[in-house]
């Protein structure tokens, strides 16, 4: 019989949370100081790190502090000669369970640093393809909690670097804010406060999730009044391991991380959380507010994860007070083709510029402002629809063999 476990939620890009077996590791840390800087790639608000598996060539894996296990695609599994230790059923965002495979032990190597996760899963090709279409890059896998258990991990989004240090010799002397962490099932949680307006605020516990491309994601513990704040906000589909799930997307006045205030972050509230709050008969459900802080917020800091001392250090960078922007077109766009440089409209959201201009699911983008989209990454395509309200974009699309020219006037769709 297949093992059944929960493997969190994929939000927009990649966000894994859940209750899985913990990971152990073999590390090079010891009594002598150890420090290693690794070049990373930031693509579409995700951190990719070069990781060799079983002595093979380095391949870009997504670094995910919200995932206990590491994940590999079936193709990578075959290439590295991994063998199955049995089936496992995992659940993520969306209703459909996913049949994955537990793999026998594998040796990972991050630029000369050996790691041996106690659990690595192989996910089906259909899921890998969906994640490639959503991220616009060939999805090869995820490096989960094993790295954070073994080292103090510094992520510098602006310099696109990762620095590893041995916990036993790590000393911090910078000017960042040192905040206490709770480590639960090898994942880092931070107490923070959501400020709804000048009078109302709610403390909560939030996963610091490098695998999420969101800013703030509220998953449980909303009161009825808090849920009602999002009733007028637009619905959006979040793509995950198990398909799609509805969320409402709006803004809160601020997120307070200790003494640090992050103003007006874009906030997604899952449909199940809204339903549960709506069924509540009391002002508060009795369940603490909980959710996830993703890379739209974390990228505004140099982030140092120190599981050994149970702290996270946040050093604000120049973007810490920058405004948050979201799509202004109403198009959900996915990448296709062998090079993932063909772009198809997956969803046209109602009451948006794209809906009013007659875009339809299945439309294939050809040009944006006379630039062929084949020369752009998916992230660059999406960025073209984030600008000043009133900006006009000229698009050519192909629909059932016909070439259509359309204009889009971008609009701030969030309150």
Automatic annotation (TrEMBL):
SUPFAM superfamilies: Acid proteases (SSF50630), PDZ domain-like (SSF50156). Pfam families: PDZ_6. It comes from the Bacteria. Residues 327-401 form the PDZ domain. Coiled coil: none annotated. This is PDZ domain-containing protein. It comes from Lyngbya confervoides BDU141951.
């Amino acid at each position: 019989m297949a093992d059944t476990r929960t493997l969190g939620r994929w939000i927009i890009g990649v966000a894994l949370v859940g209750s899985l077996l913990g990971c152990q590791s073999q590390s090079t840390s010891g009594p002598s100081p150890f420090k290693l800087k690794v070049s990373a790639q930031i693509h579409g608000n995700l951190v990719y790190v070069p990781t060799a598996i079983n002595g093979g060539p380095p391949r870009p894996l997504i670094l995910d502090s919200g995932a206990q296990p590491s994940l590999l695609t079936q193709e990578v599994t075959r290439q590295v000669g991994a063998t199955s230790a049995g089936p496992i059923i995992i659940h993520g965002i969306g209703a459909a369970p996913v049949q994955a495979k537990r793999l026998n032990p594998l040796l990972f190597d991050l630029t000369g640093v050996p790691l041996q996760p106690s659990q690595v899963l192989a996910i089906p090709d259909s899921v890998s393809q969906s994640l490639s279409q959503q991220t616009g890059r060939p999805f090869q896998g995820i490096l989960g909690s094993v790295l954070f258990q073994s080292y103090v991990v510094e992520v510098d989004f602006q310099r696109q670097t990762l620095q590893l240090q041995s916990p036993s010799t790590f000393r911090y002397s910078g000017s960042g804010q040192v905040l206490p962490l709770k480590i639960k099932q090898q994942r880092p949680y931070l107490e923070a406060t959501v400020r709804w307006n000048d009078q109302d605020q709610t403390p909560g516990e939030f996963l610091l999730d490098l695998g999420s491309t969101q800013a703030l994601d509220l998953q449980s513990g909303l009161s009825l009044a808090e849920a009602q704040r999002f009733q007028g906000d637009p619905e959006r589909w979040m793509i995950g391991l198990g398909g799609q799930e509805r969320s409402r997307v709006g803004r809160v006045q601020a997120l307070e991380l200790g003494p640090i205030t992050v103003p007006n972050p874009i906030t997604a509230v899952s449909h199940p959380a809204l339903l549960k709050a709506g069924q509540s008969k009391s002002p508060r459900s009795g369940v603490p507010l909980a959710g996830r802080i993703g890379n739209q917020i974390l990228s505004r800091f140099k982030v140092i994860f120190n599981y050994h001392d149970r702290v996270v250090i946040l050093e604000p960078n120049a973007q810490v007070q920058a405004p948050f922007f979201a799509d202004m077109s109403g198009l959900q766009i996915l990448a296709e083709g062998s090079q993932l440089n063909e772009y198809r409209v997956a969803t046209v959201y109602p009451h948006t510029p794209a809906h009013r201009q007659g875009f339809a699911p299945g439309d294939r983008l050809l040009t944006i402002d006379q630039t062929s989209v084949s020369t752009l990454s998916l992230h660059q395509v999406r960025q073209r629809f984030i600008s000043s309200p009133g900006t006009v974009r000229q698009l050519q699309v192909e629909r059932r063999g016909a070439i259509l020219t359309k204009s889009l006037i971008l609009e701030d769709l969030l309150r």
